[in-house]
Write a structure and sequence with these properties.
single chain; 238 residues; alpha/beta; Rossmann fold; Arc Repressor Mutant, subunit A; 2 domains; four-stranded antiparallel beta sheet; globular
Length: 238
């Protein structure tokens, strides 16, 4: 594997303009990415349930049934999916709202396909790869499987419901599987607009462990790293 292999990354393009979707699709596929497309936010959420999470989404703002911001709110209830907003809306207030609350980047149409590809690569390099295969139901091992969109875990085939916070916490841990995730990073990503302390995080970790660990007192999946944070086991390679 090279340091950065586009072929390992699935990009979701969400726009009700078919010409825009086609331009995005051609540019990213030419660059070696896997591309899936949707014509609205609601269609994109349904696609995620069928196909699994993408590594990054490129999202228009003004779409029927569900706006781009509404899609971001919905998908961030159960994940920390990186988003690039690609839209004709250029007023300063919307741009600031998009960057501060929803997206890693904001691009105003008309746009350069080559620049879009460069921005996608930059974000993916910065956030790193997702540790596990992003299927509709992520298989961690023979005991644990996770359905992120439906906020459900399967522990020894027993279905367990998770809260939005627990689901996002688990997503963040899997995203950095095999690497220490600091408590500060988790708090900033889970509660970006709130003041949170480690006690609050510990409560959610404790509750999640009780749901997914076969022995919560000796956790296997969410392991404490004293004074630093937590680590999730790296996926086993065949």
């Amino acid at each position: 594997m090279t340091e950065f292999d586009e072929g390992l990354h699935r990009i979701l393009a969400v726009d009700d303009n078919q010409q825009t979707v086609r331009i995005i699709e051609i540019a990213l596929r030419k660059a070696g990415f896997e591309v899936v497309t949707a014509n609205s936010g609601s269609d994109a959420l349904n696609l995620i349930k069928r196909r699994g999470m993408p590594h990054l989404a490129i999202v228009d703002l003004n779409m029927p049934r569900m706006s781009g911001f509404e899609f971001c709110k919905a998908v961030h209830r159960f994940s920390d999916l990186p988003v690039i907003i690609l839209t004709a809306v250029s007023d300063e207030k919307t741009v600031i709202e998009g960057i501060e609350q929803y997206a890693e980047d904001y691009i105003v149409k008309p746009f350069s396909p080559a620049e879009l590809v460069a921005r996608v690569r930059r974000i993916l390099r910065r956030i790193g790869d997702f540790g596990y295969t992003l299927d509709p139901i992520v298989r961690v091992d023979d005991i644990l499987r996770i359905d992120f969109p439906n906020r459900t875990a399967f522990v020894n085939d027993k279905e367990v419901s998770m809260t939005p916070t627990e689901t996002k916490l688990l997503y963040l841990m899997l995203h950095s599987a095999g690497r220490i995730v600091t408590s500060d990073y988790l708090m900033r990503r889970i509660w970006p607009f709130e003041t949170a302390n480690e006690d609050r995080l510990h409560v959610h970790v404790h509750r999640l462990r009780r749901k997914i660990e076969y022995d919560p007192k000796h956790p296997h999946y969410i392991v404490s790293e004293r004074g630093l944070g937590y680590i999730f086991p790296a996926p086993k390679t065949e």
